[in-house]
Design goal:
By secondary structure, the protein is α+β, with helices and mostly antiparallel strands. Helix content is 34%, strand content 24%. The protein has two domains: 120 residues, Roll (Endonuclease I-creI), CATH 3.10.28.10; 91 residues, Endonuclease I-creI (Roll). It is built from eight helices and ten strands. 31% of the residues are buried. One of its GO terms (molecular function) is endonuclease activity. One of its GO terms (biological process) is photosystem I assembly. It holds the Pfam family LAGLIDADG_2.
Length: 218
Amino acid sequence: MICKEIPNNLKSMRSKTIEEYKKTLILSSRQKEILTGLLLGDGHLETQNRGRTYRLKVEQSLRKKEYVDWLFHEFRDFVRTEPKEKEKTRNESRTKNVGFSTLSVGNFRFHAQQFYQGKQKVIPKRIEKFLSPLALAVWFMDDGSQKSSLHRARILNTQGFRKQEIEKLIHILDKKFNLQARPRNQKDGYQIYIAAVSADRLKQIVEEYVVPCMRYKL
């Protein structure tokens, strides 16, 4: 990807200058594919002006910093500051995460309209068109895993979506990528269970895009 040349003082720009800079931004086809994968996974779009503009928020555990840095590079022309580390406390347990937020821009509005109903994530009606090998790879890096060290099946953590939406995704994985999968019921919702027989096929599709720190998932 060829990024727009970013002013060295973007972080310290005045608001008017930033608004002028945002007008020059263009979301590339590659960035759109990555954004699709992120929104199927852990990525979020937020608006503070009733949907006029949106910002992308990315956050992962600190051990996945290489992946966050890769995403930061891919969206570099939309971001003012480099990824930052933060510590969170949950149920008396502390974790360290790393992430970044983009500028709030109109470029993300289309994806927000496709992937959200209010604040709830949904699967777009046209997801078959949007789901490319790169998007699948980002989705898998975000929310994928091995079932266990003793089993070749792969899991996509889709518990935030409705079962009907998950079944639609499974149909597309079969139709578009020849991946055998089924819903897997969990306490917090349904996962997508990719059969062991499709593990090599999945690896073949996504391997070229997977960053080194995420290759353990393959």
